[in-house]
Amino acid sequence: MLQLKDNFKNWTSGNDIIDEFIQQSQLNAVCYINYIEWIPFEKFQNITYIAEGGFGKVYAAEWPEGNIEYWDIEDQKWYRYHYNKYALKSLNNSSDISSDFLNEFMQKKIGKLRQLASGLLDIHNAGLVHKDFHSGNILFNIDPVISDLGMCQPANKQTVKEEGIYGVLPYMAPEVLRGHQYTKAADIYSFGIIINELLSEEIPFNDIPHDKFLAIKVCNGLRPNISKDVPKLLVDLITKCWDAEIDNRPTTNELHQLLKKWVYELRKVKNVEGWKSNEICSQVDECNKLGKKKFEISKSSKGKSDNIQTHPQAIYTSRLLNFKNLPKPVNSSDLSSCQLNSGNFTLTIFILKSIY
């Protein structure tokens, strides 16, 4: 996303907190659907009032420029999907607007994870395992789609080879790194890494070499950082997915049903009285309050935007790996965490949603 970073100087919302939040989402995005873009209001056309609720007004509008689809290498510019129709939701003068905004953003993320879990469930219900499940094999258009099924095979087929295994090291289960049979539980481990990548907005192990030393550390319980802004229910799910003990990981159906339940609860709870009392919504709200405080602190510094670098030996394409004499996988109780900048502000902001 270096092209997005180079464009920081060409736009501003007029609010430092919003700018920082948008920049962080762009710097940490792994695909176009995972980040926010600032759109000046004058770029919208044919704006039509739809309705008004307890928290603001809803409009329909056209955005001729359209959202980004991909970077055109030959023309060195972004290719955009033109003339989409969008919904604009205004949150007027809310004293807790950042919480409202982040709650909706978290709901969308969990919804995408539920869709991915549904795709993985289809694969597993067909008696197959993916064997190369990582964020680079997820395609986003309207909905996320699991791609690159070239290594997909029957779950009961024994194919461990002496020359090594193929995959992207940060997403590979420790038992697979040791040369054991690839199972559905190994796909679940990979899903745990992906869940954390999306929610914590940090690419796993991007600052260290992807070599045998990392493989040893993974077997000894090292896992990616989990942001303090991730709700505890989701932290618990992530840690279960990447548990060193295969039998402790949830099944694909359990994973899908849990995410489906949370999506439903997050959609139904918002009313004119605020958040209703259920666990996932309360945790999302509390985590956003924590994030707001850290975002406020970040205003006095440059933040981490200019310090995000990927180690030259951090490799995120599938390759042949062959590690000998790795230790038996164990869990570690030492969970470190990264910080997600957030903030507290009051203004009118429009949240953009594509209408398909």
From TrEMBL:
Keywords from the named record: ATP-binding, Kinase, Nucleotide-binding, Transferase
A Pfam family recorded for this sequence: PK_Tyr_Ser-Thr
Gene3D superfamilies in the cross-refs: Intein homing endonuclease, domain IV, Transferase(Phosphotransferase) domain 1
Domain Protein kinase: 1-259
GO molecular function annotation: ATP binding; protein serine/threonine kinase activity
InterPro entries: Kinase-like_dom_sf, Prot_kinase_dom, Ser-Thr/Tyr_kinase_cat_dom, Ser/Thr_Kinases-Pseudokinases
Protein name according to UniProt: Protein kinase domain-containing protein
Organism this protein belongs to: Rhizophagus clarus
